[in-house]
Specification:
Strand order of the largest sheet: 6-5-4-9-12-14-15
Radius of gyration: 19 Å
Largest sheet: 7 strands, parallel
Shape: elongated
Number of helices: 8
Helix content: 25-40%
Length: 255
């Protein structure tokens, strides 16, 4: 009998935690520890290696310590988020005006837009950390700086987005649910995110599998606001079917 998607996720999380404690282990040891075949463990390790969590070394599986990345976010799913961002960059065309919200995943798209002639408006200070491109104009919203998250909030930031419309808005979130919509855990960013979505021609949500089906504290948009969802191949097929039923184009990045 095939394992459920949730069971696979749970096992892979447990496998990563086990290796984090031991640092190294053999395929045989992991197979016995989790009571699955060596083939299953190899497949799990291959996926986790692609996510940058593990690596092979002299016949053993080695845990990879997670370090602070180039924009200051300690995130074990960082390589996966890079893949989502790269996929999103393929949907951006020359001449477009782009809104990017405070999400670390959404702002990563700037890494892959070096050849695009676009205008970007964002309240995300991480945008300043990416390589400069003479074809891209980046406008920061202004406003009060939230130093903990390196984003701008408040009335000035809100009014910057209130007076413009974008062709495309790139949104990261804490949760995407077919009932509760797009949500965030940050009250100071919620109003700005709502305005970004409201003033957009097309809304693209970037959300890895851990965000799908979840709801956070503050709703910033309904499920009907989402035009395209970019996620990964770990995503629960039942959730994907619900999003597609709501008319959302779902793009799953293989990992």
């Amino acid at each position: 009998m095939k394992s459920s998607n949730q069971a696979i996720k749970k096992r892979r999380t447990a496998l990563t935690d086990y290796l984090k404690g031991k640092q190294t282990a053999t395929i045989s040891e992991l197979s016995q520890q989790f009571n699955v075949s060596e083939m299953t463990i190899r497949r799990d390790c291959e996926i986790l290696a692609k996510m940058g969590l593990l690596e092979r070394s002299f016949g053993k599986i080695v845990y990879v310590e997670q370090t602070v990345d180039k924009i200051g976010s300690e995130d074990p799913l960082d390589k996966l988020k890079d893949k989502l961002a790269k996929e999103a960059s393929n949907l951006i065309s020359d001449g477009q005006i782009i809104f990017i919200n405070s999400s670390n995943t959404a702002v990563k798209v700037l890494e892959y837009l070096a050849d695009k002639n676009i205008t970007v408006l964002t309240n995300n200070l991480h945008a300043l950390g990416y390589k400069k491109n003479s074809k891209t104009s980046i406008f920061l919203s202004g406003g009060e700086v939230n130093f903990a998250k390196e984003v701008m909030i408040g009335d000035i930031a809100f009014n910057s987005f209130n007076s413009m419309r974008s062709n495309v808005t790139l949104v990261g979130c804490n949760g995407l649910n077919d009932q509760t919509g797009i949500s965030t855990s940050q009250i100071n960013e919620a109003r700005i995110n709502r305005k970004i979505i409201q003033n957009s021609g097309q809304v693209i949500v970037l959300a890895d599998y851990t965000k799908l089906g979840k709801s956070s504290n503050f709703t910033v948009g309904s499920i009907d606001d989402v035009d395209i969802l970019i996620t990964d191949s770990f995503a629960d097929p039942k959730l994907i079917a619900k999003f597609e039923k709501n008319g959302i184009q779902v793009i799953q990045v293989p990992i």
